[in-house]
Design goal:
Structural class: alpha+beta
Number of helices: 22
Low-confidence stretches: none
Shape: elongated
Number of strands: 11
Radius of gyration: 30 Å
Oligomer: single chain
Distance between the termini: 30 Å
Largest sheet: 5 strands, antiparallel
């Protein structure tokens, strides 16, 4: 592979006009496609195989026009101090608001508080329920504006009015976060390369790659039912790896120049060596992202595949456009160790020949491997302790900042009707095969009334055919509590008994039950996903490093960093440690998608650092250095670049911590701390310590397996043979 990529790099360097034209054409084509594509409706959300989804599907079939998965809004009214909602003036204001709400084009129904028993016992709080024909993600902006305008009119009349539900759900804006990440990346790249031009190449190629990927997603969004979150994930991951991959190739190019090679040959060797590592690092990220399909949540699968496609584009751009740009730059890109004149180039170093920081650190670790290994493992182990108390759930309006209308509506409803009112359970009774459907409906309601933590059970509401009914159950506890989860399981257990007695089926759904089912599905998929991703990447790394122990060490180190990161997430977002510093207003369960999402993204990035760092060690070992010296050589060439890449990633992810959305904040913090643990503790401390202790055994591979594996030549041994053959040809011609 190294020889093929070497030739590709030289070709791109020579034919730079053609290569640049291809990528500009692809970017233009993707942009035109995105601009001319039909506006995509937001992606439909379904969780195949869950009871909550089965109930939604049944409602669509038996209650046509009900819009079971349609958006809902609760317009909550509170009377001024000393007044009640039943007072004539306040009642007239609410009725006027209800009439205004009913005029919306996408509104399916609006329940009047005074006819629907939606006034609190003390008379101070009331709410109007609004049901829409489409889901919250598909709701038009005009409908959202009409909802807000109606609430504002009631506020102007003197009432306190807030809006809850999913009708006002909006995709978090991440543009400013990405700009912050790019700005920090630019600073780090300038410091790393000592050149504005060299620093600009990784940024330029990463932005082009993300532009092509996101534009392609936008162009295909309508046809493939892709949502806005798909492009958000693709841009975040694509930007991260795009900068990383280009950074490593440009860095290797400058190192090759420092060894006295011609620029075209240096570009070819950079792509042949660092480019080989880029290919396999990219493959690990693609495996991790495509592996999200194991969860069997269509939206998550599409997000993973789209992000994987953007990563593949980043790999191709790094292998072709970077050498082309290096060809354009010519002598303006300085060899490693030299800075541009603008940044102080040409000055005599104060201490020429002094080992760099990576060399000094690796030499220390090689001398004290046991102490460094124990300190690193014990430190990560201590950070992972809170993960034993991990509780999973999905965020609701109760986890929103107090500045949002959704959170204030949640608090008003809790005040007037109890905390469980914010997460009612919808019971669907399918009595199509029952001899007495009405008796089955009554029995279900009576049985649920006898359960703990139940405040209210509404009478059954049958469909026109009389074979299916819905029952609403209001729990005593808030939606995200374990008590409410226990109630859902208790109703389902009771439903199984009722089914045997009445020949009917009892299904529990609603947003609260759906959240519980999603959490359970993600939790059940975590171990299979981990086994698939780690297993495939383990096999891939065996091929790359031609070793058993090095890939095993890489996988175990990754698990350590992920567990430590999960522990940190639990400590901050569940226990409340440093919550003021992180601006976490409400602690509670960790988002159920967090563990599997962290495993996928962090595994890909962790293997990037592993491949780039250890490949250089493998290269030195193959070329004759002793194992301990190979570790030091690998750090001399790779530590600075890996450190820069990690700092860039941490900056990109940390930008999301400032988001007002608790879910985005949690993802940003979790990914940033995971990259920190993995890059600076696992890859920079534990990895060299383990390799120093193992010595030659680190690179052991059974002979039968060595013969069976393909020789991908990541370390570039084939380039040396290729160079020897070229020299022989030159001698013959001479």
């Amino acid at each position: 592979m190294a020889t093929f990529l070497y030739k590709l790099g030289r070709l791109a360097f020579r034919r730079r006009h053609f290569v640049a034209l291809i990528w500009v054409a692809l970017l233009t084509l993707a942009g035109v496609g995105a601009a001319s594509a039909p506006a995509a409706g937001n992606t439909s959300f379904s969780i195949p195989g869950t009871e909550a989804q089965k109930a939604f599907d049944l409602l669509e079939q038996r209650f046509p026009g009900m819009s079971a998965d349609g958006a809902t809004a609760r317009v909550v009214f509170k009377a001024p101090k000393g007044e009640k909602m039943t007072d004539a003036v306040n009642k007239a204001t609410v009725e006027k608001t209800v009439k205004e709400l009913r005029s919306g084009s996408e509104v399916a129904s609006v329940a009047d508080p005074y006819t629907g028993h939606a006034v609190s016992k003390n008379g101070t709080v009331a709410y109007a329920s609004v049901k829409y024909e489409v889901s919250g993600m598909e709701l038009e902006d005009s409908s959202k504006d009409a909802l807000k305008d109606a609430a504002q009119d009631a506020r102007d009349a003197g009432l306190t009015v807030e809006i809850g539900g999913d009708a006002l759900t909006a995709t978090p804006e991440t543009g400013s976060s990405e700009i912050i990440g790019i700005a920090v990346a630019a600073v780090v790249l300038v410091i790393t390369f000592g050149s504005l031009l060299a620093a600009g190449f990784p940024l330029l190629t990463a932005i082009i790659g993300v532009g092509i990927g996101v534009s392609a997603i936008t162009a295909l969004a309508s046809a493939l039912d892709l949502g806005s979150t798909t492009s958000t994930l693709a841009s975040m991951i694509g930007l991260a790896v795009g900068i990383d991959y280009a950074l490593f190739i440009v860095s290797r190019y400058r190192a090759e120049l420092a060894e006295g090679r011609e620029r075209e040959d240096a570009a070819g060797r950079a792509v042949g060596t660092a480019g080989s590592a880029v290919v396999f690092a990219g493959l690990t990220v693609v495996i991790a992202l495509v592996g999200l399909s194991v969860v069997n949540i269509p939206m998550l699968t599409k997000m993973g595949i789209a992000a994987a496609g953007t990563v593949a584009i980043a790999v191709l751009i790094a292998l072709t456009m970077i050498p082309a740009l290096l060809g354009y730059a010519g002598r303006r890109i300085k060899p490693a160790g030299q800075k541009s004149k603008l940044l102080g180039g040409g000055r005599t170093p104060k201490k020429p020949g002094r080992p760099n920081m990576g060399t000094r650190w690796a030499s220390f670790v090689v001398r004290r491997p046991v102490a460094v290994l124990l300190l690193g493992v014990l430190g990560l182990g201590a950070a992972a302790i809170p993960a034993a108390s991990l509780e999973l759930g999905l965020p609701d309006d109760g986890s929103q900042p107090t500045s949002t209308t959704q959170r204030r509506a949640y608090d008003l409803l809790s005040e007037g009707f109890g905390p469980g009112f914010n997460g009612p359970l919808l019971i669907v009774v399918d009595a199509k095969d029952s001899a007495d459907p009405k008796a089955a409906f009554t029995k279900v309601g009576d049985e649920i009334k006898g359960l703990k933590d139940v405040v209210t059970v509404t009478p059954a509401t049958p469909n026109k055919a009389g074979d299916t009914a819905t029952i609403t159950v209001v729990p005593d506890s808030k939606p995200s509590s374990t008590t409410t989860e226990d109630l859902v399981h208790a109703i389902r257990d009771k439903g199984a008994d009722i089914a045997r007695e009445t020949d009917s089926q009892v299904l529990v759904t609603g947003s609260t039950a759906m959240n519980i089912d999603v959490s359970q599905k993600l939790n059940d998929a975590l171990l299979p996903y981990l086994a698939l991703v780690v297993g495939l990447a383990f096999l891939l790394l065996i091929v790359v490093f031609r070793s058993i122990l090095v890939p095993l060490k890489a996988a175990l180190g990754f698990l350590l960093s992920v567990m430590a990161a999960l522990g940190a997430v639990v400590a901050v977002f569940q226990w409340g440690w440093l919550s003021g510093l992180m601006n976490v207003e409400e602690t509670g369960p960790v988002m159920s998608m967090m563990p599997i999402f962290m495993v996928g993204v962090v595994f890909g990035l962790a293997m990037d650092y592993e491949v780039f760092l250890v490949t250089r060690m493998r290269e030195a070992y193959v070329h004759g250095e002793k194992p301990s010296q190979a570790v030091v050589t690998g750090f001399r060439h790779g530590a600075r670049v890996v450190t820069a890449a990690a700092v860039i990633m941490i900056a990109v992810f940390s930008g999301f911590i400032g988001s007002s959305e608790s879910m985005v904040k949690m993802i940003g913090f979790g990914l940033a701390i995971a990259v920190f643990f993995d890059a600076f503790i696992v890859r920079m401390a534990i990895v060299p310590a383990v390799l120093a202790l193992l010595g030659k055994r680190a690179w052991w591979l059974p002979k039968w397996l060595d013969r069976a594996l393909p020789n991908v030549d990541v370390e570039g041994e084939g380039l040396r043979a290729h160079a020897d053959r070229e020299e022989e040809k030159e001698l013959v011609r001479a």
